[in-house]
Design goal:
mainly alpha; 691 residues; 24 helices; two-stranded antiparallel ribbon; single chain; globular
């Protein structure tokens, strides 16, 4: 406790320095939208997001340094700029579920925009209000190391001496965007696939007859996916890819082998034409007899539910492993709420002032009323259900916001299990509402709405506490950072639905143009967490869950746990994603493994290793952001039926040979540039990225 009392921030409380300025706010809001949009793109396609604290810190420093901004302005900009990623995480984990579950027949409508925006803003503000209650006890707790917060603070400090890596970030963003647009213009083939046919045969000594094959695939040529693999590293990348191998190398061929001989293709074709009036009988028959289509349908409708069962068990196991931390965190949080309610001080130093307690209570109450209005007036439940939903939402949001903040304090926001927390909230809400007699689409919508608010609240709370800890170290003013994040949440909440809508409608339009079924839940926009939410909510409320497949997946997840698999969730997500996605992530992990190998081979010291790590993370993050933003722009064009390849294409049928060159360029950049920037052995170590 004595160390806490003696803590001296980088900028003292008595120092009068620019902090909450118009330029810092505008820059922060801009990055909140940009980094949020990039993470939305990445999360929908790969099922993962990257922490925005580090990129926001580097980008904010680069711009404000040109304007001779202060370190507290940089801290404020990073705080606002990183909050968009949290709103995006909440959005992609939940909002597509309304579409996938069938609650929304169309995604991009004015009514859906209003509903989604209200949900996102309500969850974000609620998370910030709870954080304002919990800040002091958590950021000043010596037992919570806040590794990424410390790293971010040190980056800001180092920036005062002129160091920084913004050039790597901006350069990589350009490269990622360029590769994405060159692929769109048909310079190279994004993916190579070939179906290998197995001959029809009867297993000796049985009447079991089989016929099918296996789909072989290259990794998708994607700077974003490879950037993700680079950041998570070879071990986690391999775990993710192992799920893809299980799905596409074992389950899909095996199911196809025994299922196809018994399929009546005429009935299957008739089923397709009955559900798609634009599809002719001949086209339907051609589709169902295509082995590639068959195996993709098996993966989509049989293997994916199995993967969902695995994700469900994995989420529960993750929370179980953290049970001591969770109980400690929530107990501490309850104590701090009591302190906040009674310990209002008037002569508090600048760097210890939070939003006034009265306004916090008003904010929490307003969100509760808003939740009631959404469930009663928009989802059309009765008054009792609406009151219960609002009450359950507040309780769960406080609990999971506290848990999220505590977990971030232990291991950083990059490892915060938001999807697991949201799944738990969804199941609890669904069971309570079902017990009260809720049913139909109104019940499903209410469950999803409550889960969405809780999800955004937990994600924002974790990110906010991480930034407040960095601000605590630097000497930032908490209430100014909190107000800034409220503005960031409002803007990101208003924009994020539009981002998702363009991605969804753009993929649908591209699918119609190129002959595939696009949109949320498709191969291109897997949205694994949201699809899981949709299946669970409708399954629990309406009893439409494919329980045999879900249970099989739960048993599989249990087997992973018994085998002491490091991350059963990552394996299950790998099963849910297209093989080319997990393969590309794996390749990115191998590239990081190569960097680690050469780092050791060259016998670099600790300081040089940190520089290599930081440069690599910046390059990978830049490639992710560059491809994501260009992908979003392409999706916007597609919505308006503008397809760039219709106006200009390098090749009508691009070859995959050029793809090898693109892959080699990505690998070269991610290996050579970090190693070349290791610096001299006698140079002091820069602050680590914490990622």
């Amino acid at each position: 406790m004595s160390e806490q009392k003696k803590f001296i921030p980088f900028v003292s409380a008595e120092t009068n320095m620019k902090e909450f300025t118009i330029r810092a706010l505008v820059i922060g809001l801009f990055f909140a939208v940009i980094l949020g949009a990039a993470n939305a793109y990445l999360g929908l396609k790969a099922g993962m997001t990257i922490a925005a604290t580090y990129p926001a810190a580097v980008l904010g420093m680069a711009i404000l340094r040109l304007m001779k901004g202060s370190i507290l302005e940089e801290n404020f900009t990073r705080t606002v700029g990183s909050i968009g990623e949290s709103v995006a995480a909440g959005a992609i984990f939940t909002l597509p579920a309304f579409f996938v579950s069938g609650i929304w027949s169309e995604f991009f409508t004015a009514g859906n925009y209003i509903t989604s925006t209200l949900i996102l803003i309500a969850g974000g503000i609620l998370g910030i209000m709870f954080v304002a209650l919990l800040r002091r006890v958590m950021v000043e707790d010596a037992e919570l190391p806040f590794p990424e917060s410390v790293a971010a603070a040190e980056i800001h400090k180092a920036g005062q001496g002129g160091s920084g890596g913004s050039k790597f970030l901006f350069w990589a963003m350009g490269l990622g965007g360029l590769i994405k647009i060159l692929g769109e213009l048909r310079l190279f083939q994004y993916l190579w696939e070939k179906f290998v046919v197995f001959g029809k045969q009867t297993i000796s000594g049985t009447i079991f007859a089989g016929q099918g094959g296996m789909l072989l695939s290259s990794p998708g040529i994607s700077p974003a996916y490879m950037g993700v693999g680079y950041i998570i590293g070879p071990k986690l990348g391999a775990l993710n890819f192992s799920g893809g191998l299980l799905a596409w190398g074992l389950m899909a061929p095996m199911i196809m082998y025994f299922l196809m001989p018994g399929i009546n293709f005429q009935d299957w074709a008739a089923f397709l034409t009955a559900h798609d009036s634009t599809l002719s009988a001949a086209d339907a028959m051609a589709k169902v007899t295509d082995p590639s289509y068959q195996i993709n349908q098996i993966w989509k409708y049989i293997i994916r539910p199995i993967a969902i069962g695995g994700m469900l068990v994995s989420a529960g196991f993750t929370l179980f492993k953290m049970r001591k931390s969770l109980s400690t965190g929530i107990a501490r949080s309850v104590k701090d709420v009591k302190k906040a309610a009674t310990g209002i001080e008037h002569n508090v130093p600048r760097n210890e002032k939070d939003i006034n307690f009265s306004w916090i209570m008003v904010g929490i109450g307003a969100v509760a009323v808003l939740t009631f209005c959404i469930t009663y007036f928009i989802f059309h439940t009765n008054i009792l259900i609406a009151v219960v939903a609002a009450t359950v939402m507040i309780i769960l949001a406080f609990f999971f916001a506290s848990v999220s903040g505590y977990l971030v304090g232990i291991m950083g926001s990059s490892n915060n299990p938001i999807s697991g927390l949201t799944l738990t909230a969804l199941v609890v809400t669904a069971l309570i509402l079902v017990a009260l007699g809720v049913q139909g689409d109104a019940g499903v919508a209410t469950v999803l709405g409550v889960a969405a608010i809780v999800c955004v609240s937990a994600a924002v709370a974790g990110e906010m506490l991480q930034d407040l800890k960095a601000g605590h170290i630097l000497g930032g003013t908490p209430w100014r950072m909190q107000i800034g994040d409220i503005m960031g949440v409002i803007l990101a909440g208003a924009v994020m639905f539009v981002v998702l809508a363009f991605l969804n409608d753009g993929d649908i339009a591209s699918g119609k143009n190129l002959g595939y079924q696009g949109g949320f839940g498709s191969k291109n926009l897997s949205a694994p967490q949201a699809s899981l939410m949709a299946i669970l909510s409708r399954g629990i409320v309406q009893g439409q869950m494919a329980w045999p497949l879900i249970i099989a997946g739960m048993l599989m997840g249990t087997a992973f746990i018994l085998m002491q698999v490091k991350s059963p969730m990552l394996v299950s997500v790998g099963m849910y994603l297209p093989i080319e996605t997990t393969f590309a992530i794996f390749v990115g992990g191998l590239i990081k493994g190569a960097v680690d190998y050469f780092t050791e081979k060259r016998k670099l010291n600790a300081a040089q290793k940190v520089r290599v790590e930081n440069t690599g993370v910046l390059l990978a993050s830049g490639m992710i952001a560059g491809e994501a933003l260009m992908g979003l722009l392409i999706a916007i064009f597609a919505v308006f039926d503008i397809f760039l390849y219709d106006y200009f294409s390098f090749f009508k049928h691009p070859t995959f040979y050029i793809s090898f060159i693109i892959l080699a360029i990505i690998a070269y950049v991610l290996i050579q540039i970090p190693l070349k920037n290791a610096g001299k052995p006698d140079q002091p170590a820069p602050p680590a990225s914490g990622m």
